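TICKET: design request
STATUS: open
ATTACHED STRUCTURE:
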């Protein structure tokens, strides 16, 4: 079912994007500015097609699975649509920071509410404390996916390997089947989006795409962690976590307005340092494939020492990549 969901989502996304692009040209045109990575006005909002394709393909696949145990995660779907609407409004007319964060937090809270109360990452921790920390972490993850969506193909280079591994782990029964099917559909929808977003992009995801993508990926990673696959849940998004979090701390240390738009992420500095867009996203994709293999090895080995070694290898690889992006490229 996961493969069928991915293929169906790719076809739907590829069909919807040309249909929605003329409307987005009129109401959601992103014009270049000092913080942009693009040079010409480009419509944003391609995430409308990606998220619609994801939810439709996943819903159909789950409905046709013929398994009473596998049901459509309605609360997760509703939260995804809700946060996509917030993103679309922000794409058309930017929202103030505080209400935007509160609305996003409500979507993250809905996803956390969908997780059974008996499931915890740390069994000894009070439920209220763990869920409170997960709310903060989920809100940060949703926004960091949005922050990192600043280069053609960047989100696809990150999200497709993560989605593929979540779907594969679900296929062998280590996480719920509905999570695996949704992940497969998300990966497929992004593949359908790739021809329109490859450099030079004809359309961007926009907040309407990046926010719900972050929510759905975060949900999948949370399901991994809840099933004891904590190392895998950390390894899969490790590049995004490191780039966005280190950039945030650096901006805070410099007393910059860290909530304002900027282009000081490592991947953005790489383009300023002489890396082409294709080179940046190619190296990020290769790194993420490597992290995906480490995550699969963690799931397979199932020992604390293996997890520690694999996390160290992943951290070293990410550190090397960030250092490489931060240095001017030598011809």
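STATUS: resolved
RESOLUTION: sequence designed for all positions
ATTACHED SEQUENCE:
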């Amino acid at each position: 079912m996961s493969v069928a969901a991915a293929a169906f989502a790719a076809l739907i996304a590829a069909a919807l994007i040309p249909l929605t692009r003329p409307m987005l040209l009129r109401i959601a045109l992103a014009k270049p500015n000092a913080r942009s990575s693009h040079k010409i006005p480009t419509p944003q909002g391609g995430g409308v097609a990606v998220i619609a394709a994801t939810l439709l393909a996943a819903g159909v696949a789950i409905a046709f699975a013929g398994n009473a145990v596998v049901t459509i995660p309605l609360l997760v779907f509703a939260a995804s649509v809700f946060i996509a609407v917030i993103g679309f409004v922000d794409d058309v007319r930017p929202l103030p920071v505080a209400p935007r964060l509160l609305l996003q937090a409500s979507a993250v809270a809905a996803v956390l509410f969908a997780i059974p109360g008996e499931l915890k990452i740390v069994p000894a921790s009070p439920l209220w404390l763990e869920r409170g920390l997960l709310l903060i972490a989920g809100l940060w993850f949703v926004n960091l996916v949005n922050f990192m969506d600043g280069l053609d193909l960047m989100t696809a280079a990150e999200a497709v390997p993560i989605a593929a591994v979540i779907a594969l782990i679900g296929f062998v029964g280590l996480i719920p089947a509905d999570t695996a099917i949704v992940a497969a559909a998300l990966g497929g929808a992004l593949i359908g989006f790739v021809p329109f977003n490859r450099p030079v992009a004809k359309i961007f995801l926009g907040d309407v795409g990046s926010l719900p993508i972050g929510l759905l990926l975060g949900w999948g990673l949370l399901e991994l962690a809840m099933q004891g696959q904590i190392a895998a849940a950390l390894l899969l998004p490790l590049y995004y976590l490191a780039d966005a979090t280190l950039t945030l701390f650096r901006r805070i240390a410099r007393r910059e307005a860290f909530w304002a738009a900027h282009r000081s992420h490592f991947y953005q500095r790489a383009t300023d340092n002489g890396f082409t867009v294709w080179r940046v996203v190619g190296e990020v994709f290769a790194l993420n494939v490597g992290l995906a293999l480490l995550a699969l090895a963690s799931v397979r080995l199932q020992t604390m020492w293996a997890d520690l070694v694999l996390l160290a290898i992943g951290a070293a690889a990410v550190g090397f990549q960030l250092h490489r992006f931060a240095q001017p490229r030598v011809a």
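CLOSING REMARK: The first strand starts at residue 29 and ends at 30. The mean pLDDT is 89.
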